[in-house]
Specification:
Elements lengths: L2 H5 L2 E7 L7 H8 L4 E7 L3 E5 L8 H7 L8 E5 L6 E8 H11 L3 E4 L10 E8 L2 E8 L2 E8 L3 H15 L5 E6 L1 H8 L5 E4 L2
Parallel strand pairs: 1-2, 2-6, 7-10, 10-11
Antiparallel strand pairs: 3-5, 4-5, 7-8, 8-9
Helix pairs in contact: 2-4, 5-6
Length: 197
C-alpha cells in the first residue's frame, strides 16, 4: 500500500444519541490507521435545508426554526450537499470535541435522511434505534423528516400521521434498519414494502 493510499483510508462510525457511547480512547484508536472520518449522526434533531438556501452560519437557526433547537451541551453539524439538500443536525459537544481532536478537519457528517437512492416515486423509511427517518417522493422529495419514536405506540402514531397526508401505505416503500419492529408495529398495512439490507 502506498502512502497516498494509506492517507485515503476512511473510517465510518454511527453515533447514536449524540455519541455518548464513545470514549476518548475508542475515538483515538479509530484515528490510528485512518486519516478521514465519516460520521453518521442518529438524532431526531435533524432537518433538511435546500442547498441553494443553505448558509452554514445560520445552521443553528434552521434547527430552531423547526422547533428542535440544540441544547446547551450540543453543537450543530452539517452534511455535504446531496441531491440539492444539506442535513443539519445537533450532536453532543463533548463527542464533537473528541472527534475533532482525533481527526482535525478531516470529518464529514451524514444522516440517514440524505442517504440511499432517491426514487422518482415512493417512500424510504429508516428506523434506527429510536429515530424514524421518512422520505416521500413524487418526481421530487415531498417530505423528509426525522421523528423520535421512543416506543411502538410512537412509531405507529408517526407512520399513521404520515400516511394520512401522503398515503404511504399504498406506495412502494423501501425500508431499512429495524424493519422487524416496523413490520410488527404497522401490522401489514404497507401494500408494497421492500426490505433493503
Amino acid at each position: 500500500m502506498s502512502v497516498s493510499q494509506y492517507n485515503n483510508i476512511i473510517v465510518s462510525i454511527r453515533l447514536m444519541s449524540g455519541g455518548h457511547s464513545f470514549s476518548p480512547n475508542a475515538i483515538m484508536s479509530l484515528a490510528n490507521g485512518a486519516s478521514y472520518l465519516k460520521a453518521e449522526i442518529i438524532t431526531p434533531k435533524t432537518t433538511l435545508v435546500p442547498s441553494q438556501m443553505f448558509d452554514k452560519s445560520r445552521a443553528t437557526e434552521y434547527l430552531a426554526f423547526v422547533g428542535i433547537a440544540p441544547d446547551n451541551d450540543e453543537v450543530v453539524v452539517c452534511s455535504d450537499e446531496v441531491d440539492g439538500k444539506v442535513a443539519v443536525m445537533a450532536m453532543s459537544k463533548d463527542c464533537y470535541a473528541q472527534l475533532s481532536l482525533a481527526f482535525g478537519n478531516n470529518i464529514t457528517f451524514t444522516s440517514p435522511l440524505i442517504q440511499g437512492h432517491a426514487p422518482k416515486q415512493g417512500a424510504l423509511i429508516d428506523l434506527v434505534g429510536n429515530v424514524l427517518y421518512v422520505r416521500v417522493f413524487n418526481a421530487q422529495m415531498l417530505f423528509g423528516e426525522a421523528v423520535e419514536v421512543l416506543g411502538d405506540a410512537d412509531l405507529r402514531y408517526a407512520i399513521e400521521k404520515i400516511n394520512h397526508v401522503y398515503n404511504i401505505y399504498n406506495m412502494h416503500v423501501r425500508a431499512r434498519g429495524d424493519v422487524d419492529r416496523l413490520v410488527k408495529c404497522c401490522d401489514k398495512k404497507f401494500k408494497d414494502l421492500e426490505i433493503v439490507a
